[in-house]
Amino acid sequence: MTHHRVVVEADGGSRGNPGPAGYGAVVFDAGRGRLLAERREFLGVATNNVAEYRGLIAGLTAARDLGAHEVDVRMDSKLVVEQMSGRWKIKHPDMIPLAQRAREVAGSFARVTYTWIPRSENSDADRLANEAMDGEDAITSGFVTDAAAAETPAPEPATAPSPGWTGAVGAPTRMLLLRHGQTELSVERRYSGRGNPPLTDYGRAQARAAADRIADKGAIAAVVSSPLGRARETADAAAGALGLPVTVHEGLTETDFGKWEGLTFGEAAQRDPDLHRRWLSDTAVRPPEGESFDEVRERIEAVRADLTAAYAGSNILVISHVTPIKMLLQLALDVGPSLLYRLHLDLASLSIAEFYPDGGSSVRLVNDTSHL
Q1: Are strands 70-75 and 111-116 parallel, antiparallel or unpaired?
Q2: What's domain 5-142's superfamily in CATH?
Q3: pLDDT for the residue 206
Q4: Among this protein's residues, is 52 annotated catalytic?
């Protein structure tokens, strides 16, 4: 359902100015009788004015995604209202790119008006901003929280600026990284690389639970999967819930463990004790007839480049395996290979990494299994 005219109310705050900051935004129908969408996000350390602009951008983006043609913006920030109305000049360098981004989103509408309101009349957005500053953001920062979701799944593409402390610029490609569900080899803790074991009954239940969780949040532009069967089964469940096709990317396949395929850790260590020991500490070492972690990283870097080019500024669901997901998180964090050996990822767990067009990146979530 498209809403021709909507009301956006937005607020932002900073405890310390600069200090821990967050924003909140709500979208109502023209008569303010029906809540259509909510947004909130913790920004890290930022100023109050940055948070106010970020709230405005989030509210305008939500209105655009609802298909609105006209928007009445109501805020208790005199500075933002006057600057966006063109009556005050923007002098602070931190405000210039934010105002420009707000104008770009506002250009999507036939008409936008800006009205100052007292804080007492902005309680809904103020509440969300305070919840964000209190840390009640979780995964909702990357998805729409839409009171009308059953009727209007208002997605929030990754069009907002980066978290305030990172300095990244532009709209990120947000990758929701979902590990496949359980297989018999994972139950027995065996190396499972290029082999193709199917999901267990429990693994299929995990896939459905993850699919329902992601579909309930919405805002996914594409589902991209490893070619291996266990990932494809998991991807099919998610794609069915989202009403999207599955795109297969060969680069998302798991590490080739060569002769260690199907062996337990102990069995592989017993078979090739010296090689196995070196493999655990040197990413250039290959399993017998297998693939080194350095080689995996090279193809995952190519995957990242492909996906950020094909789905720039969008939220995409990526279904893969332990090593490729760890590699994407490693790239987003810009850390060394120790992450590969120290980070644990559960079956059907969800992590979120963002990659910005200027080369910046961030990680919003790691190993979340709250849907299981």
Answers
A1: parallel
A2: Ribonuclease H-like superfamily/Ribonuclease H (3.30.420.10)
A3: 94
A4: no
